[in-house]
């Protein structure tokens, strides 16, 4: 199929950290992360005139030239434009013939993002910026047939996200780019993880800005303990020992409560956490940076789900099952 007729459409997952989310911000430390299937969708087709970025989340369309991508670093399109520029630059430096001919063909594209992950104060906390970056890298790679490996695409996406955000562990990029669930070591290892229990997300509806929270200073003892707990939880998952997993997940939650400043656990999160963990067959933890947003819930069985779902809804808290996204190639 020629580029003039080509249209690429792809779905991109979100992510939920469930261990090590603060420790992993320091190089060499560990985290456990899973992906969550969403309706976040990205499409690319050839444009007749200028290239354009479009979305359904309330941002104005952005027009530009693919041969000379210029934009203000304060632009709300910064993640997408930087990802696009870095993907084409990486492929061009590899001397891919398809890229070297882009300027000769005068190709311009229409890239459209349709998201249900929210924006600004309404975001859901599933890593929307990381989803944008990974989605652009993967979609551009597919549209122009760049044949970039998964490892190279992760490298481009990680570089882009850090360049724009200025901080982070790249754990969200690793999970979203590789799919499934992962045992992640900052700047070192990405290993697949198979979670044997049903997974749910508990949404409090209060957005939190992660970038501001991960700059908190923590002790060496905190990092050591967090890493030990991540390893113990990964082992419990591997041997499918739910009781051990719940015990270590709770210890990890307590470690964060003792070390993260006041506000980490909101009233809504506390209510949901206490209710869910009172059931032996359920294991819940605040996902990500806290200060709002989500809990992640693991269920050895689903017998109590309808009951707790009803109780939480009385406080305006939503509980829903989610599917872990497929692994990528």
UniProtKB/TrEMBL annotation:
Q: Which InterPro entries match?
A: GHMP_kinase_C_dom, GHMP_kinase_C_sf, GHMP_kinase_N_dom, Phosphomevalonate_kinase, Ribosomal_Su5_D2-typ_SF, Ribsml_uS5_D2-typ_fold_subgr
Q: What is this protein called?
A: phosphomevalonate kinase
User: What species is this protein from?
Assistant: Lactococcus cremoris subsp. cremoris GE214
Gene3D superfamilies cross-referenced by the UniProt entry: 3.30.230.10, GHMP kinase, C-terminal domain (3.30.70.890)
Looking up Pfam families in the UniProt record yields: GHMP_kinases_C, GHMP_kinases_N
GO BP terms: isopentenyl diphosphate biosynthetic process, mevalonate pathway
Question: Superkingdom of the source?
Answer: Bacteria
Pathway entry: Isoprenoid biosynthesis; isopentenyl diphosphate biosynthesis via mevalonate pathway; isopentenyl diphosphate from (R)-mevalonate: step 2/3
What Gene Ontology terms describe what this protein does at the molecular function level? ATP binding; phosphomevalonate kinase activity
Q: Which residues are in the GHMP kinase N-terminal domain? A: 110-180
**Which enzyme class, named as a word?**
transferase
Q: Which EC number(s) does UniProt give?
A: 2.7.4.2
Record key words, sorted: ATP-binding, Kinase, Nucleotide-binding, Transferase
* GHMP kinase C-terminal domain span: 234-317
